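>> received
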Amino acid sequence: MTEKPLKNHRRTRKNQPTKESPTSSLPSTNVRTDIRASFLVFGPLLARTGKAEVYKPGGCDIQKEPRKVDYHIQAMEDMSVQEKPSIEETNIFVKMEVENGLKPAAITFEKSSVGATETAMMAASLVEGDTVIRHAAIEPEIYDLADMLKKMGAKIKIDENVEIAEDDLTDFGIEEEVWNVITVTGRKSLRSVSHRVMPDRIEFGTYAIAAAMNN
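>> returned
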């Protein structure tokens, strides 16, 4: 007996480039307010749609004020084709539009930031050419994200402890003479992959401390 195909069933091939575009530049309410990492959709949305309206990170009852996202915005400004992209920032959200899209760029952070480094890496993965992220963060989460993006088709090189010219140190006002540098070679589209995200180190540490306190 021959099985009948299911109605409205779409077959997808593994590791094929993703062709669907997001239907909105504004994430859903639960994504943008309930999780601390909500702002990480900022870079990918700008790269794919040319605009993003993202609420500042939530999910933290300890810190009442929204976390600063200056370096995320700076990275996207550096990558903007426009000299002065449209940016609107309030205490609650950031709205940015890059009319002509993003381009490869050299990004230098005054202070290393895990979130801003991740934002730059994801956006750069969707832009053809080499983007260099200097004074980047290199926490384990950065390597984990790099592994996933490489599976998706981007090329990523992480160089630790790179000696920086004195002129650069002066220009950016950074005291550390050794920086971490990440080079991302992006492409127009990335393929779908399956990737297991590494465990949350802070959450693990919290449970470990709680267990130690009860022994």
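>> The CA atoms of residues 73 and 105 lie 14 Å apart.
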